[in-house]
Amino acid sequence: MSKGTTRKYAKFSALVLLLALVSALITAFTTNNNQNNDESANKAYSDKELVKTLPGFKNGYKKVNGITLHYVEGGKGEPLFLLPGWPQTWYAYHKIMPELAKKYHVYVVEYRGMGSSDKPAAGYDKKTMASDIYALVKELGYKKVNMAGHDIGAFVAYAYAANYPQATTKLAVLDVVHPSERYLELPLLPPPGVYDTSVKDHPIYPWWFGFNSVPDLPEKLLQGNGMRIYQDWLFDYLAYGKPAMTKEVKEVYYAAYSSADAIRASNGWYKTFRQDIEDFKTYPKLSMPVLGIAGFDSTFRNLDAHLSKYATNAKSLKLEGAGHWIAEQKPQETIKLFNEFFQ
Known about the structure:
With 343 residues, the chain is an alpha/beta fold.
């Protein structure tokens, strides 16, 4: 190799090293900046900070069935337990909690796998999750409570009422009820019109039931920004026309589901649907008063058909303009319905 060639090679090598150094510095700065932003966001949307926006409420933690459950409580009166859904947290009820607390002692519980509650490797069938709630109810000193749930929370609330009728005063389920053999009839391919969100009351096609049941893959694909994109799509698809939540409220849910562990745990709720269906076959008809509130025509039909068959004292209704995010999109109407039903 000639001296000229050697010098050119040395200069080229130095340039490559310089570019690599600059790239590494940029990557390190960006990563550190993103981590700082994530830490700031997580702090801003922590339970400690969020509960400050709801005067009279406080965070609570209890260890039951070998796991720690987080809940937010406030108010005075008969106990009313609220169970949120996916992909949200206890904050899903923030618009209705203050008013309900004027008449009830409200407990919003993050069940197994959600938010600040423990995320064990197993136990995500709704019968086991209901046993967690029952243990919490007893730990808090109650023998009988009012129970309400939305989405996955409705599954758990229903399982609670079915397994512990002696501990259930009244039950309210929002937009869904409990996995049954009807779930096995869902089509693999979407029917026409289910994605036409220009039609506000469009039929719902829950394709995520299958995706969330796949082992390992969702958390690998979604952790970080991917889950945010997923949640945004769901928040819009399941809303009635206009967006159901502000950007600030969405940030609360983004922060709660951004990690692989949070995605893994929440998907556990879906991976157990087959077991939930088998458990449902053993449940008696519900005998306590039951209220079903739906936000779409399609979810109302399913809810009403189920409760008409499997509950002896049930009332189902459609809350116009509520969509799936009922307590977020129609808070005042939800408060009114709850006060009338649980009084």
